[in-house]
Amino acid sequence: MDRIKLLLQFIEEEPDNPFNLYAIALEYQNTDQEAARDYFEKLLENHADYLPTYFHAAALFAEFGKLEKAQQIYESGIDLAKQQNDQHTLRELQNAYQNFLFEYDID
């Protein structure tokens, strides 16, 4: 809980820093998935160019059964990785997306 308090303090001090929102979303992912989802949504809405968000957000939305949203997030992340010329993240997102399509039998 101390980590969450610290991260919330960081968000208060630097509300426009996407890393702080990302860090708390990851922290909540294991303890409070609803809160994690809320922070990932804030990131996607307010910091759409923050590439690390897409991998974890898409996976979390898939876990919630929000398959269309998860698919859209994967596809947006892949497009963003191409725009940012981030080959490593592009490969990770493409692999995760293919696994997602296979696991949920999406054509």
From TrEMBL:
Cited InterPro entries: TPR-like_helical_dom_sf
Gene3D superfamilies reported for this sequence: Tetratricopeptide repeat domain
Highest taxon in the source lineage: Bacteria
Name of the protein described by the UniProt record: Tetratricopeptide repeat protein
Lineage, highest ranks first: Bacteria, Pseudomonadati, Bacteroidota, Cytophagia, Cytophagales
